[in-house]
Amino acid sequence: MPARIHSVGAAVIVGVVVLTGGCSSDSENQPQGQAPVPRTEYRNAEYMIEGQRIKLADGLSETDTSPGSASRIVTRYFGNELTTDLNDDGRKDVVFLLTQQRGGSGTFFYAVAALNTEAGYRGSDGYPLGDRIAPQTTVMSRNPRHKNVVVVNYGDRRPDEPMTAQPSVGKSVYLKLDADTVRWGIVVPSFEGESR
Question: Of 6, 95, 150, 172, whose Cβ has the fewest other Cβ atoms within 10 Å?
Fold first, then answer.
């Protein structure tokens, strides 16, 4: 009788080892050191563009310019993403560019941020960069006096050039997000503080 109990116990132990081995072999098949798939809920957040609330759905919003109008305002995710912690809460936020077309020939670019909160992503206001610019990079400021300052680099035209000219003038804007109001403030590159 004791031998029978011992063999049942051994079978249970073998079963646990097999199950554990199966789980561990599954995890071994996963690529090691690969970053998790990035979350993209910020492409469904709401942003404030030119005083109007824009709710994206998978990075796109289409609204009428006015009730019954055939003309549409199309706001679209463009890219140039920067992932960083903008408010020192330990969560990764996202800065990126949106474009907006309002029925004419213009394509207006805006820098926006999505704060990663416990309740989900909270969209910022859009900082206007210009019409038909040539976006380049979005990076953190290298100035040691700048804390959580984002630099958006892009090409633009000279004031005397027509909109048909290719953007050839390099520009940079230094921005800092107010986490409470979710609005951008302009930072002067050679100055320690910020101005709005």
Answer: 6
| Positive/negative CA dihedral, 70, 71, 77, 78 | positive
Burial class (CB in 10 A: 0-12, 13-18, 19+), 171: middle
Residue 69, number of CB atoms within 10 A of its CB: 11
pTM of the predicted model over 0.85: no
Radius of gyration of the chain (CA): 25
What is the spatial distance between Cα 184 and Cα 138, in angstroms, rounded to a whole number? 15
d(CA 177, CA 9): 62
pLDDT in tens, 143-165: 999 999 999 999 999 999 999 99
- CA-to-CA distance for 109 and 138, rounded, in angstroms? 13
| CA distance linking residue 178 with residue 184, whole number of Å | 6
Q: Which residues contact 36 (CB under 8 A, 6 or more apart)?
A: none
